[in-house]
Structure formats: structure tokens, C-alpha cells
Amino acid sequence: MKLAIYPGSFDPVTFGHIEIISRAAKMFDKLIVLVSVNPLKPNSFTREERLEMLSETVQVEGFDNVEVDSYDGLLIDYFKQRDADVIVRGLRAVSDFEYEFQMAQANRKLCPKAETVFLASKSEYTYFSSSVVKQIGMFGGDIKDFVPEYILGRIANRLKK
Ligand code: PNS
Q1: Domains in the chain, please, with CATH?
Q2: Could you tell me if the CB of 27 is within 6 A of ligand 1?
């Protein structure tokens, strides 16, 4: 059984993430979407809120082989604990590459078994990011093209506060 982990901040989840989840879920027997800590980014949503929105996404979209979890430590420690095979990351543009490449190399140094698979984002999602969603939402802009309607109200209300 091939087990993959898709880690990220998901602060909040966007259509860009959902598209990666959907494709990765078809490539592996099981996919864990892991809410992780990025020490370089402050979060707007609590871990519980992010987990809740991701769980709802998985349920509504009918991703049967996808589990949602969170971990506060090193991704690679979780990877080892779960005896996973692959780390999945989305690549939107060349500008993502250096950071992603560094993470993949560091993770493989810490655990030689850890393969990172990069999925190229669909072209319509290349400029999507949680930060863009947060900026638009904070100033009361319309975020309906960026996040699913079943979590839209929650995200918009939270960002306006
Ligand atoms: O969605 P993001 O913020 O780009 O995701 C980055 C994330 C959370 C996957 C990365 O910061 C991470 O792996 N955090 C867990 C801590 C860790 O293992 N850091 C070392 C990576 S080499």
C-alpha cells in the first residue's frame, strides 16, 4: 500500500490545494493531508479551524481515501511514525521551486526513504495562495473564486474580524 502525505499550512485551504488533493488521492492508496507548522508564516486560523475546514472539504468532495491530521513537529518524524512512502507538494511557479527543492533535499537527508513528488498546479491556480485569499478577505473582497462555498462564509467572517 502506497501512503502519501500532503503537508501544508492550509491557512485556509483553497481550490489550489483541493485540486492537488484530488489528483494525489488518485495516485496513492491513501493520502494524509497534514496540517503542519510553518515557522516562517504566522497563521490566521487556529489549527482546529484549519482541520475542521479540511475535514469538511474531504467529506463534501467525497475523497474516500483521504485522512486529515495535524502534527506540530518535524514533518519527517510524522512521516516515519506513519511509515509513509511519499511526500506530496504542489508547484505553482518556478518561484516555488528553490524552497521546495530545499525542503525535499532536507527531508531526504533526515530520512533517505522520503521521496517528494511535485504536482504542477493547474494553470488557473498558479496565482492562488492562502496569503492572497487572506488579503482579499481582510479587506472585505470577494473570495468566492478561491475557496469552496461550503466554507466561504466561515473564512470571510473570520478574516473580517
Ligand atoms: O503550506 P506551506 O506553509 O508552504 O507548508 C510548509 C510546511 C508546513 C510543509 C513546512 O514548513 C513543514 O514541513 N513544516 C513542518 C516542520 C518541518 O518539518 N520543517 C522542516 C522542513 S525541511
Answers
A1: 3-123 (3.40.50.620)
A2: no
